[in-house]
Each structure stands twice: as C-alpha cells, then as structure tokens.
Amino acid sequence: MNRPTPAVTATYPAPSAIFEVLHPITWFPPMWAFSCGVISSGQPILAQWLVVIAGIILAGPLMCATSQVVNDWYDRDVDAINEPHRPIPSGRIPGRWGLYLSLIWTTVSLALAYALGPWVFGIALVGMAIAWGYSAPPFRFKNNGWWGNLAAGVSYEGLAWITGAAVMIGGALPDWEILALALLYSLGAHGIMTLNDFKAIEGDTQMNVRSLPVQLGVDGAARVACLVMGLPQAVVIALLYSWDKPAHAMAVGVVLLIQVGLMIRFLGNPRERATWFSGLGVSVYVTGMMISAFAVRALIQAA
C-alpha cells in the first residue's frame, strides 16, 4: 500500500525551491516582448547594452517571476490537492515564505524599474498591480477567463514591449506606432492564454474557475481562441501596409497563414491538440512580433 509522502518541514526555503517557485520557464514571453520593444525603439542597442540587460532582468527574472510566486502563494490550497509536490504545499518553502518572497521580488522589481526611468517605473507599477490582482483576492482575475487571460496577455506582451522601448529612449513614452503594436499583440495573447486552459477543464469546473473552456465549452473556446489570436495580427498587417512597409506586412501575413493552417488542425480536436497548437502556434506568433518590431524600427529611423 502506497503511503503519502510527508510534507517537508524547514525554517527557511532552500535556493533550489526558490528557483522552482519563480518558474524560469515562464520568463521567455516577457523577455521576448521586451526585446521587441528594444528593437522597435529605433535606438542603437550596443551603445546601451547595460540598460538592455537590466531591462531583460526586469521583464523576466523579476516582474514575471514575481507574478509566478504570487500565483503559487495564493493557489497553495488548490495546489495541495492537485500538485502537492510544488514547493509551497510540499513545505519546501515553509510557513509564510511564499508571501515574503512575493514581497521581496515586488520590491526589487520596482526598485530597478525606478532606476530605469519614470515611464518604466509607471509601467512596472501597472504590471505589478495586474500580477497581484490576477491571483490575489478580492480581484483574482484568473477566476474568469475573459479578464484573467486579458490581464496575462497585457502583462506578458504589451507592458513588456512598451517597457523595452521606454528603456531605450531614456524612460519616456514610446511613439504611438509602438504602443499600437504592443496593444494588438497583447490582445492576440489572450487567445494564447486560452489554449493553456484546455488541460485543466475538470479542475477548473470543480474549483469554480470560469475559464473560457468552462464558460463556452471546448469547441466554442477553441474558436474564440483562434479568432482572438488572428484578428489583431490582421490589423497589424494593415498597419504595416499603411506605414509603407509592404515586405514586413507580407512576412507577417505568411506568419498568420501558417497559424491558420495550424488552427484548422487544432479545431478538429481542440482538447487533445491544445498543447500541440500552443507549442507550434506561439512560436510562429512571436516571430511575427519581431518582424513587426523591425518594421517600426525602420520607420522610426527613417523619420
């Protein structure tokens, strides 16, 4: 007979447990979006390489990591049932250290953001409010797929993109073209976040988490995810043409057509193919982000 493994008890968390609760695998999207912001700013990169490195650290190991540990702290009771091996429910991060780490990472993130300029600090404040509101009561945006996925998309893509551009131009507000791309790719990321909800339909239903697959059903949520991913990219293509960047517009069009092909297969069996589509589709999606960033870079440098 298998006996449950007793929880680990300790006074302080081990470094390995801290690293695990910060979920480094999740840092790539905001770091990539930050890099898109750096490129789109039109500013010389090598001349500001220290600032770029500081911004990448802010976007991934600090801001994104903060959102992860905050989420794990406020999900600790659910994780104790579904994933008891995680650092907080297992006791490898003991007592209230999950909360303490959340506060420490929040403080360090905002301190670095402040050093990078007023607009960066303001954006970081918004991002941090979303990070806490996503997981913590009374807001807990993640309990509704419409609001939660939007909050995650804005944080991971839009705010990181704007921060990258703001860092490069001395902490000022970026040009409207940069803001437009950041907004559109944030909206598209809402669909990407929906793909992550298909693997947890039963648990979300039991815990009254109203993800889109729970609210709309599997097929309805799959169609919405594809539509929300595709439409903003179509607007990006139109904008690139209007900015006299036809080559970039065509390249993003090819990126979108590849995604449409993947979407058709995904819609044939959404529940089983959501992870597959997320892996391939997101890789193609972020390629379009960088192409668009280079288009705006050329536009700004030519002005």
UniProtKB/TrEMBL annotation:
Q: Which CDD domains match?
A: PT_UbiA_chlorophyll
List cellular component terms (GO): membrane
Q: Is Transmembrane helix one of the keywords?
A: yes
User: Can you say where in the cell this protein is located?
Assistant: Membrane
EC number(s): the record gives 2.5.1.62
Write out the entry's keywords from A to Z: Cell membrane, Chlorophyll biosynthesis, Membrane, Transferase, Transmembrane, Transmembrane helix
Top-rank taxon, per record: Bacteria
Top-level class of the enzyme under EC nomenclature: transferase
Per the record, membrane topology reads:
Multi-pass membrane protein
Pfam families for the chain: UbiA
Q: Could you provide one GO biological process annotation from this protein's UniProt record?
A: chlorophyll biosynthetic process
Question: Which InterPro entries does its entry note?
Answer: Chl_synth (IPR006372), Prenyltransferase_related (IPR050475), UbiA_prenyltransferase (IPR000537), UbiA_sf (IPR044878)
Transmembrane region(s): 49-70, 111-134, 146-172, 178-195, 216-241, 247-268, 280-300
From the UniProt record, which GO molecular function terms apply? chlorophyll synthetase activity
What is the name of this protein? Chlorophyll synthase
